[in-house]
Amino acid sequence: MAEKLWQGRFDQPTNKLVEEYTASIHYDSRLYRYDVEGSVAHCRMLAECGIISHEEASRIVETLGEILRDLERGHVALDSSQEDIHMAIEKELITRIGETGGKLHTARSRNDQVALDMRLYMRDVLSQIVILLHELREAFVSKAEANLDVIMPGFTHMQHAQPVLLAHHLMAYYEMFRRDSDRFSDCLTRTNVLPLGSAALAGTTFPTDMEWTARYLRFPKVVANSIDAVSDRDYMIEFCAASAIFMMHVSRLAEELILWSTSEFSFIEISDAFCTGSSIMPQKKNPDVPELMRGKTGRVYGNLSALLTLTKGLPLAYNRDLQEDKEPVFDTADTVLATIRLLSKLLPEIKVHREVMARMAGQGFTLATDLADYLVRKGVPFRKAHYIVGQVVQHCIQEGKELGDCSLEEFRTFHKAFDEDVFPYLQIQSVVDQRTSVGGTATSRVTRAIAAAREDLRASEKLLNPELRPKK
Ligand code: ARG
Predict the structure, then answer these.
(1) Which among 94, 176, 240, 261 could bridge 304 via Cys, Cβ 3.0 to 4.6 Å?
(2) Tens of pLDDT along 37-95?
(3) Which ligand 1 atom sits closest to the C-alpha of 200?
(4) Ligand 1: does its nearest atom lie under 6 Å from the Cβ of 217?
């Protein structure tokens, strides 16, 4: 039975079941790098402030470096008797250098230590997400640019509504992902605050220097309240909320990709490398990747819900319940990172069936609004024009034809304002290109939207922290 670092007050060893039940090491061990980084900063600060000697600090820092290397090689045994990664590393330090190692935890508690580790971890994750979202946004802009001349039916209520550019549809997702990126950046600002030094909940009696630690760990701010520092988890909740919204956007896109690749739609084809087959039906090529993106959205929502429920009834300050905060955050981060990476690769590989889209764009009376607008331009009040075109549509349904198939004589039986110029007016390309209102689908507008997005991407690229770029 390994002796606990907090054993002093106890007569009996911990029950084995309790040990297993309370341990978090099997999932918080992934924080080991951050834990060492935080301990090194803390130790140097203690020396700077004269709380421990510089010799002691050097010995501790050096050994922490060795422990880190050994952890990386899997040479440090981690098991539930060590409870969590913080205890495991501190215990290893004491095993290696004895009493001096026992000085590291001066003016610190695991409560502020774990808060620091999670903030360091999330800072990395958030920066990676923002960088990957940048790539994803670029992928959308490129896809839109390459398909600027593709017209498709735009939908409302899943019914053909009006023709739009595929590029316009794609740029709608660009806008969603741009806002998602803003949400993650915003969350990063609030995460990027140093909690270490708050100790158990009340601060410390030692003459520490939290500003020093903050500078060392590149935190622009120090927490203002020690109780808040060890008990609050709102930055994690914010992260899970931003992730839930992001996955909701992904899921809508996934739904469209699935739908559009059915034989009924045939708008697109997802490349073989991103599809899987069936174990029984030899003909099948299934869109499992978007299906799983849609499916994984559920677990990300669940993680947000878990965190909100976890924290809602907790009195201040730290309670052990908070140990349960990590798995939802890790799972969310893993899911979001993997999803963005895959989506950025999948998107360029989508083959667009432009002729099918174009054919469908004119079907289902998608030009009816334009026909009404035509009459309005001839002086007919819109409400009346709407009614007249409704009658034309009814006539076409009976005759089994589209609006464009009607002759001028037929149109004229509904209103005398119809004239020869109605036909060029009803050309699909011109119908699209006339929608020049701000944010509209006209080629001129979408071209500008693409240029603005490119400019936005160039500007935000400069702000991306190269130090935090994901390792390839
Ligand atoms: N493993 C713990 C957690 O994740 C670390 C903090 C433990 N603090 C305590 N007072 N028992 O929350």
Answers:
(1) 240
(2) 999 999 999 999 999 999 999 999 999 999 999 999 999 999 888 899 999 999 999 99
(3) 10
(4) no
Q: Do 375 and 244 share a structural domain? A: no
DSSP string, 451-470: HHHHHHHHHHHTTS-GGGSP
Most informative mutation of 21, 25, 114, 316 for ligand 1 (most atoms within 8 A of CB) = 114
Q: Which helix (H) or strand (E) holds 114?
A: helix 110-146
- Ligand 1 centre from 79 Cα, in Å? 16
Mapped onto helix, strand or coil, the DSSP state of residue 96 is helix
Positions annotated as catalytic residues are: 157, 278
Q: Are residues 374 and 321 in the same domain?
A: no
Tokens 């040479």: give the residue: 75
Atom 3 in ligand 1: residue holding the nearest Cα: 323
Residue 199 domain-assigned (yes or no): no
CATH number of the domain bearing residue 390: 1.10.40.30
Whether 100 contacts 190, CB under 8 Å: no
Q: ∠326-331-337 over CA atoms, to 5°? A: 125
Q: 0.70 cut: is pTM over it?
A: yes
On whether both 296 and 423 belong to a single domain, the answer is no
Closest by CA to 326, choosing from 347, 298, 299, 307, is: 307
Q: Is 174 in the same domain as 302?
A: yes
Domain that residue 383 falls in: 367-436
pLDDT digits (tens, 9 = 90+) for 132-155: 999 999 999 999 999 999 999 999
| Residue 12 tokens, joined | 């009996």
